[in-house]
Amino acid sequence: MNTATTTADAPKQRTFLQKVLRMARRQPLGAGSAVFILVMLFIALFADVVAPQDPLDMNFADQLIGPNLTYLLGTDELGRDIFSRIIYGSRTALQIGFISAFVGATLGLVLGVTSAYLGGWFDLVFQRIMDVFMAFPLIIMALAIVSVFGSGTWNVIIAITIPFIPKCARVVRSSALALRDIPYVDAARASGFSHTRIVLVHMVPNVMAPYLIMVTSFVGQAILLEASLSYLGLGVQEPTAAWGLMLRGGAEQFFESAPWVAIFPGLAITLAVFAFNLFGDALRDALDPKLRSM
Fold first, then answer.
1. pLDDT, one tens digit for every residue, the chain (294 residues)
2. What does residue 81 show for φ and ψ, rounded to 5 degrees?
3. String of DSSP letters for 30-62
4. Cα torsion at 61, 63, 69, 74 (round to 10°)?
5. Of 146, 159, 240, 253, which is the most buried if we count CB atoms within 10 A?
6. Partners of 81 in the beta sheet?
7. pLDDT, tens digit, for every residue of 257-278?
8. Number of domains making up the chain
9. Could you tell me the sign of the dihedral formed by the alpha carbons of 91, 94, 98, 104, in that order?
10. d(CA 174, CA 75)
11. 150: buried, middle or exposed (CB in 10 Å: 19+, 13-18, 0-12)?
12. Any idea what DSSP says for residue 204?
């Protein structure tokens, strides 16, 4: 019986691998970005093993030492190993990025589908509220929220999550509007199913493609927002290792004498955001039937 099951699952596994390889051939940049993201996740999860030094260990005898065999990316103004701090900073960036993106996009998904399903005055009022939130740039909205709640990791997550909700809700709503009058939704309504069940069971699964794309793009935006807030002193606070804090430290003061203090954290932010954006574009092309058929 186990042999028969394994034999039956083999074609499915081959089909999945064929789809992955086909997508990699069509989207080489997206495939490379996916590999980079996986490596970044591995480094963040096993930072305690990967990092050669303690990111909080200050050695004032080794202040502002350039890259060498002991300190691969040099040290900062407090003698801390920049390479180790970048590794631990990836953990901070991904934690805030994934939580903010997932919570913000999920709330936007549910609210957007609910708005499209109910329609009428609820949809009208809800969309005007979303318009108010979307009138503000992400960074301005995040700054306003942080000024109310204060700094710190979880407050930063809240500040980044809230601006994501209306963006995802607007995109999902446009897709859900086409589903509201489809026969199977009418059949579920005629069968006496509750509005909650119709929204969550019959409509939400059919708008997962734009939702997944939004989640992926939100992660990159969240990483950039977190770095911006930390750079301004309103995000993650010392001694937590964070890329924005590394830029805020001695990067400006020692840019000419020790450029590695600013270059390597800035490069980490750039590569992470670039990878998530490229992966989001590849995912959009793969999930969009119009683009997939081209």
1. 455 445 445 555 567 667 667 767 777 787 888 899 999 999 999 999 999 988 888 888 888 888 988 888 988 888 899 999 999 999 999 999 999 999 999 999 989 888 888 888 888 998 898 888 888 888 888 888 888 888 788 889 999 999 999 999 988 888 888 777 777 777 777 777 777 777 777 788 888 888 888 899 899 999 999 998 888 888 888 888 889 888 886 666 777 778 888 889 999 999 999 999 988 888 877 776 554 544
2. -70, 120
3. HHHHHHHHHHHHHHHHTHHHH-SS-TT---GGG
4. 170
5. 159
6. 75
7. 788 888 899 999 999 999 999 8
8. 1
9. positive
10. 50
11. exposed
12. G
Structure tokens that stand for 201 in this block: 């069971």
Q: What is the pLDDT of residues 36-73, one digit of tens each?
A: 999 999 999 999 999 998 888 888 888 888 898 888 89
- CA torsion through residues 131, 137, 142, 148, sign: negative
Q: What is the pTM of this model?
A: 0.84
CATH of the domain at 94: 1.10.3720.10
Query: Residue 199 domain-assigned?
Result: yes
Enclosing domain of residue 44: 27-54+69-292
Output the 3-class SS for 69-108.
Answer: CCCCCCECCCCCEHHHHHHHHHHHHHHHHHHHHHHHHHHH
> Is 152 inside a domain boundary?
yes
For 225, counting Cβ atoms within 10 Å of its Cβ (0-12 exposed, 13-18 middle, 19+ buried), the class is: buried
Residue 50 lies in a domain: yes
- Contact 90/227 with Cβ under 8 angstroms? no
Q: What DSSP string describes 107-135?
A: HHHHHHHHHHHH-HHHHHHHHHHHHHHHT
**Do 119 and 208 contact (CB within 8 A), yes or no?**
no
